[in-house]
Amino acid sequence: MEQTSGDQQEPPRSGEAQPSVTAPATQTTASTTTANTDTPAATNTTATAKATRPSPLARSESLLPPHNRASITAVPVTPDITLETYEEEKAAGASYFARKKTDHEIAASPAPLSPNLPAGQNFQSQIDEGADAGKNFLNRLSVVAMSGRRESLSDIRATNPNLSLSGNIISATFSIPHELKYRKGADWELKPRRGQSALFDSFSHLSSDEAPWNHTVVAWPGEIETPLDTLSPPGTPPATTVHLSSLNVLSAPIPIDGDKAPPTPPLVDGLWIPREDMQRLETQLSHDKRIKTVPVWLADDTEGHDEGIRLKDQGRWRRYAEHDLYPLFHYKLHEPTDGRAERIQWADYYRMNQKFANKILEIYKPGDIVIVHDYNLMLLPSMLRQRAPHMYISFYLHCPFPSSEFLRCLPRRKEILEGVLGSNLVGFQSYSFSRHFASCCTRILGFPSDTTGIEAYGTRVEVGVFPIGIDATKVASQAFTPEVDSKFEGLKKLYAGKKMIVGRDRLDSVRGVAQKLMAFERFLEMFPEWRDKVVLIQVTSPTNIEEKEESEDKIASRVNELVMKINGMYGSLGFSPVQHYPQYISQDEYFALLRAADIGLITSVRDGMNTTSLEYVICQRETAGPLILSEFSGTAGSLKDAIHINPWDLTGVAEQINNALTMGQEQRQDMEKSLLAHVTSRNVQFWIAGFLRRLVNVLGSRRDIISTPLLDRATMLRKYRAAHKRLFMFDYDGTLTPIVAEPSAAIPSERVITSLKALAADHRNAVWIISGRDQEFLTQHLGHIKELGFSAEHGSFLKHPGTENWENLAEQYDMGWQKETFEVFQKYTDKVPGAFIERKRCALTWHYRAADPELGVLMSRECQKEMEATVGSKWDVEVMTGKANLEVRPTFINKGEIVKRLVTTYNAEMKALDSPSHTPSGGSNRKIEFVLCMGDDFTDEDMFRALNGLSAPSDGTAEVEAANMFSVTVGASTKLTLARWHLLEAEDVIECVALLAGVGSGGGGSTGGGAMSMGEVNLAALSTVEDHLPAGVEN
């Protein structure tokens, strides 16, 4: 998560020596200069320098607001926000969901320092009006603000009668809003979780009476702490002094988190939680007055059973997301590795998403809306779509999304994108992030896309920009309290006569703390008149993200080196220009800092959402301190009136610090007025209401279109293992091998041959290749596998497993149509360089793969029209369009007829076996229990159509049970298909065959490596089925 304000929740532990950002009660200052002192008097040297250097106010561009400066707006840098990106949408009409401009207007902001504020224009009224603006959409849903949820939901249903909305929202997020402490047999200790404050505030809003929804959060409990309650006789000396306060406060260690004891090493056997304690927590969370939560318990099946659950290595579930996804999404690449750790981490990531899907499906009801949050759950939308095709699913990414050049470096890039594309709507913080996502879907998956969505799997996945906000009313109420006032006055007194620049960041590599310190050093170097007059107060809290390359200690060391360098060069015995506090601070201290600051400085090198900037605007309503914000922050596009800087341009940042310090009162007030208007109106309520409005509109406009879900390999493997008779039917070109320019070059790989051999070797499996290829080609390349059955030329010829003879199913048919067909094809071959004709026994095919793509498509359409008007009108043939080809064949010969023939034949044979001894393991021998059919083009739709007909009756009389039938279309085509599942490319087909046959990624069988040599995706599916990593994988 990118929201950062929630980290300031816990004060330092009492009894320990802690640096404080507030003034001690007895501290005094020798200076009488106020905190709002203007530029200090210049010395003679400074005056000479000023004579040759124009003042900031004399520079024409500096007089313009930041969003009107060409040096800012004309540079195409990430996040690539234009001035029009977040303009109001034009209302489509006066409908129930129509958004009116007046709904989001707020009262004009008065000058922050005006002494006499008229009624309705004071800060609190503006906060209230701004908060109401964000709620207007939901209030319109309820007609009368306090009329209750039932009435408002009736209005929603009346406006969208074709949507079966239940009124329930399920929010899936990685961690619950609480940090937990466990004591056996007692109630769980719940305290607010740091960070993600904006997200949790949106949950609170959806769960409140202000929203017309019944809201439930599904989340992982997180790493569970257990107190060390050691029983010992009175007077027994402690075994260690780690947890005890020092007798001498000067010698006390300074922990990073003053409220938490140093972490204890994990128990060897894990933390055992009995079933009754698990149920106690579930009851506590379900009855929480603020947010109703359903926990997802994450553990291997060997670590849990009916009596309870054993939690081992709890952090394993977050490792893939934080080691691989988080750094890459922030444009950081780690060094290549041997991949062993990544295989295990990916399997855990996959299983974790599956466990979330299982829990959601336990509480899901038709018509519920599911909102999935952030990078930890990027596979969840597709997993839900696989098992509930009609579910209403949205996904929101709270962190940046990288360009395709960076995402290509992720080994599991395809699976991540496919996972998100299970959604109806995908939301991002910034336009550049949404543009990158759409571009990645096109460049990596091959799906057509534009700025508003992606065409995928027969439907359209909408993409939108929804900048998140904060709960402005809540922040204002917390920032202006007597306790904060006291600390605010202490800070002003402590730093009287000095300008305060305040920064508060997590200590990770993307927050730009080092860049901030280097820019401040450059500022002191360039503007010596500010030395001893400006102090940078930097608070850094520990990050909750595990990073591979740059550990927290390494970053902290770099920060400490810069702090010591600056203080050593520009400080003195009585003053240090940088005050660095590597600790958590309390909420009151945090807001006092923001209120006391003269400048808010945020130099993140890449982030999605930084709520500190928004909270700074609220806290500055009295003093109107300028906000300097990195253009690489996700909030830069929203806060367009802030001073935008490039954190890598140290000189530019230094100049903007000087500009902010010398900015006139009127200009600062104008900046604050504009920023405050935005923050109070575009609050968290406005964000979640807009996101839901867009989702409902998307669902309403595309209610009759159902996408084809990604093949669920785990479900397929379960069904395969449970079946006693299985039938496999594969197309060849584009399915077992990729499409190539020259058909004769489509040779099966060694892994294809090995996988088919292993699959066909099982006597319970009947494996068939149903292709448009002729007998000669199939015999040459796959005929040596005697257990395979073949159907050539789209069903014209048949060869059963274990036999040598081909059966001609079209020998009684008149083939006189071929001569006229050949003549037409020859005419177009002469027109299209690179085209050629393939003559088969029962069909003729015109290929244009090697021709110019545009010319080939144009001529193929003309050829098809002529063929249908001539040959098609005289003979009982059909003209079929394939991938870069046209084929003419008899109408009664197609792959669908072969599928019907095989299914009915095998079922008849099984019914004829009435002796239990003929059935392996004593199972049923009445019908086929598993069918897998895969194909990539239009001709394969005949197979899918036939299977749908064979599985149609749901009363048990069907030839194939629908739950046991897997029809899979292959390719990135956006066509509507009769198949029930999809795969992206031929390589995925081989992976699935290898999974069922137990073939490793190198082509070896189960005896040649097994799970150890299995690919990451297959290993994840196998781990999901067995609910633990296979033996030996973790070694």
Automatic annotation (TrEMBL):
It holds the Pfam family Glyco_transf_20. GO terms for biological process: cellular response to heat; fungal-type cell wall organization; trehalose biosynthetic process. Residues 1-71 are annotated as: Disordered. One of its GO terms (molecular function) is trehalose-phosphatase activity. Coiled coil: none annotated. Residues 22-52 have a biased composition (Low complexity). GO terms for cellular component: alpha,alpha-trehalose-phosphate synthase complex (UDP-forming); cytosol. SUPFAM superfamilies: HAD-like, UDP-Glycosyltransferase/glycogen phosphorylase. In the N-terminal section; belongs to the glycosyltransferase 20 family. NCBIfam families: HAD-SF-IIB, T6PP. This is Trehalose-6-phosphate synthase/trehalose phosphatase. It comes from Cercophora scortea.
